[in-house]
Fold this sequence. Notes:
A: two-stranded antiparallel ribbon, 2 strands, B: 117 residues, mainly alpha, 2 domains, flat
Amino acid sequence: xxxxxxxxxDSRKLAIWTFIGSECMFFASxxxxxxxxxxxxxxxxxxxxxWLLNGKEVxxxxxxxxVTTGTALLLFSSLFVVLAxxxxxxxxxxxxxxxxGATLFCGIFFVGMQVFEFTHFYHRGMGFTxxxxxxxxxxxxxxxxxxxxxxVLWLTTVFILALRGKLPPEKSLNLEIAALYxxxxxxxxxxxxxxxxxxx
Amino acid sequence: MDAAAHTHEHTHxxxxxxxxxxxxxxxxTALEVALYEIGRRGQPPVLAAAIAPxxxxxxxxLSAFKFALVAMFYMHLKQDSRLFSSVFVFPxxxxxxxxxxxxxxxxxxxxxxxxxK
Lengths: 200, 117
């Protein structure tokens, strides 16, 4: 339950939705910038270029299998967090802790995947200022990765509350709000994944 | 507080619905990657030739469908108050307009001043 409001809705939930709305416009500007500069580089490396590494032909810059795994885990993490929320709302502590732990694992894997990818690109000679692709790519995916990292921190605090038994059903909104933010970073990646990695 | 609104706000789907949505999202992602691989390898040739003209549209359509599934079921927009949907969808329309405006403006700019090759 929440205090009476003029809308009849919880103000915290309305606030997170308003925040998510503003974040949509933020990421739209980053995705738009990536798209307008796509293919406009005057020098490589470009995302789908074929590379030579130690005399062996490497198919392309982007690691599609790795990123697909990260994408799948991020999608599954959205499923896990709603199952955790269901557990929190029904007072099923085991379900809450188990699924929330699984969500955190997926989130941490995703962040690790991005750190690996960025390091990999750097070692292949693509730094932040190398060309237009690298700048727009690192800015867009870096900001998204930052949001995922914040989401992991946020869910970790909720996880600690749950472990301490301080997340009873009447306080499940604390998890619901964090989960809404988590789903938002997921839907942003649902757009980024095909736009950056698959469309060429 | 409006009791009806409060009840409506908290009628969320069951775990089985969540799992079915999760499986659908996974299948759609696999389909996206399969389309990408077919286009990249050009195999099978008939399918690759059929996909090529609508490749981008197909990927964007699949992406939009996944986006809608997460927003409606996992973010509970389908069950929660319409005010939340409005607060989300209105900026989403502005976001789409930002991307379209950038593409149109820069397309025009590049037509006036082509970049060096």
